[in-house]
Amino acid sequence: MKKIAVYCGASKGKDASYMKEAYHLGRYMAENGYELIFGAGSVGIMGAIQDGVLDYGGSAIGVMPNMLNEREITSTRLSELILVDSMHERKNKMAELADAFVMAPGGAGSLEEFFEMYSWAQIGIHQKPIAVFNINGFFEPLQSLINHMIQEGFIDEKYKTLAPLCDSPKELFDSFHNYKPLGVRTYD
After folding, report:
1. What is the pLDDT of the chain when averaged over all its residues?
2. Confidence label for 72 from pLDDT (cuts 50, 70 and 90)
3. Which burial class, exposed, middle or buried, applies to 21 when counting CB atoms under 10 A from its CB (0-12, 13-18, 19+)?
4. Which of 48, 21, 35 is nearest to 168 (CA)?
5. Element (H or E) spanning 3, and its range?
6. CA dist 48 → 20, 36, 41, 91 (Å)
7. What is the band of 188 on the pLDDT scale with cuts at 50, 70, 90?
8. pLDDT at residue 68, as a whole number
């Protein structure tokens, strides 16, 4: 497991610790031989992770749709830039390249990318590990929602540990290395 897709925001968030911890994640990845696969942005959490990876000698592959490349801030520091025609192709390419998936703080786009990988794991499209980088408890409400969905019978109980909340890069990667596929969703 070497290539890690990270879904995260192009915003900084209001607390400086989001950027600091994002940079720390990138540094940890580089120092431990992991390659970053991400959305190719140079700002916000996305840029901080990329900078941590590249400042410490790692590799960062960015996947950017042509339409966004024309109006967003595509990084000029990338090890490799892959241009695609649509957001769908971006997500597919990132999923194809990655050995595991991380969600770090972000907005609706990050959630959408994360939940696609989450649901794909449930239906057997992939069996790759997923984890959530829970900086400052950011994803506690998400975990509460997932627990509620399990409690109400909309997500199978076995998926309670599909995407663990992790408070440090070491915890994230430990969860990847201890991951065991949970199997395909069953229907009553």
Report:
1. 94
2. low
3. buried
4. 21
5. strand 3-7
6. 8, 12, 10, 20
7. low
8. 83
User: In the chain, pLDDT over 90 holds for what percent of residues?
Assistant: 86
Which of 6-20, 27-41, 57-71, 87-101 comes out lowest in average pLDDT? 57-71
At position 163, the amino acid (one-letter code) is A
Residue with tokens 């950027």: 19
User: 38 by DSSP, 3-state: which?
Assistant: strand
Question: Dihedrals φ, ψ of 80, to 5°?
Answer: -155, 135
Structure tokens at 85: 């025609």
Task: Quote the tokens at residue 80.
Answer: 């490799």
Q: Are 148 and 107 in contact (CB under 8 A)?
A: no
184 pLDDT tier (thresholds 50, 70, 90)? confident
With b for 16 or more beta-carbon neighbours within 10 A and e for fewer, the 41-66 pattern comes to bbebbbbbbbbbbbeeebbbbbbbbe
Through-space distance between the first and last CA atoms of the chain, rounded to whole angstroms:
34
Asked if pLDDT for residue 42 goes beyond 80, the answer is yes
State which fold the 3-177 domain adopts: Rossmann fold (3.40.50)
Q: Where are the chain's structural domains?
A: 3-177
pLDDT for the residue numbered 73: 80
Using alpha carbons, select from 171, 114, 178, 122 the residue that is nearest to residue 150: 122
